[in-house]
Amino acid sequence: MKSFVKGILFIKLLMLTAFPIQAEIISAKSMKEIQAKIEDVLQTQKAEDMLLALDIDMTLTQPDHPAVYYPAIRKYADVYKSILGQLTLEQKDLAVTLTTQMVPQRWVEQETPKIINHIQKEGVKVIALTSSLAGKIKGFQDKMVVLRRNCLQKMGVDFTRTFKKSTKVATFFDFKRYAGGHPMFYHGILSTNGEGAASKGDVLVAFLRHVGVLYESKARKPGYFPKVVILADDKRKHLENVEASLKAYDPSIRFIGIEYEGAYTYAPQDISAEDFERFWKEVAEQANF
After folding, report:
1. pTM of the predicted model as reported, rounded to 2 decimal places
2. Residue 237 and residue 5 in contact, taking contact as beta carbons nearer than 8 Å
């Protein structure tokens, strides 16, 4: 067993020295632009060697409430920062996660399900990667990561198929317990369990180890080692973090970060300063409680 694992690691080491890191971070204003980039990569790369990770909040979906629209948060930035600034980091993570459950969710773009389904049919492995909490929150019937997966499935996107033959559920106990839970992969949804204890880069690398060398050594079957990792996220800091983590983990992986800007201008309904403040105070009170 030890010699088997050492052999895998030796091969990986040779790959690290043979292939320098390839990375790029670009911006996209729509899911169609993301699809076009993937189609472009498919011209030179096999679909099965590509892993597409899609942020959920403000990239795929967003709470359908004017107080959570990006333009409103920017307009009342001082109020927003004042209210959330009184919370601990754990409470902030809880507050952000609560908005995904207290408010009905809508697609940022109505064509998103169709585009994702098309990419999946191309053979690209697609997962969701979210910073929302993964564990159980008092007052809700199940773990957050389970509720997120159920919501997306009801809305027309199913990430379950991606790793259902090798990894359906995995909890990453190497990360310290935070907000009552740990980072977790659940039927295609990879959750960092907040931003207070683990980054998207660290959790994605832990997942790649889990489906790669760890799976191969345990199951005695070929693990999954992507040659290209693409992350679409509305926050550039996550793209830069994943880029750095992948570079440290395996420089042979080509990374493409896509800063999604589709939710930046969406604000079909205005909101007063009073109503904005009232909404976020209610969320903060529940997080504090």
Report:
1. 0.90
2. no
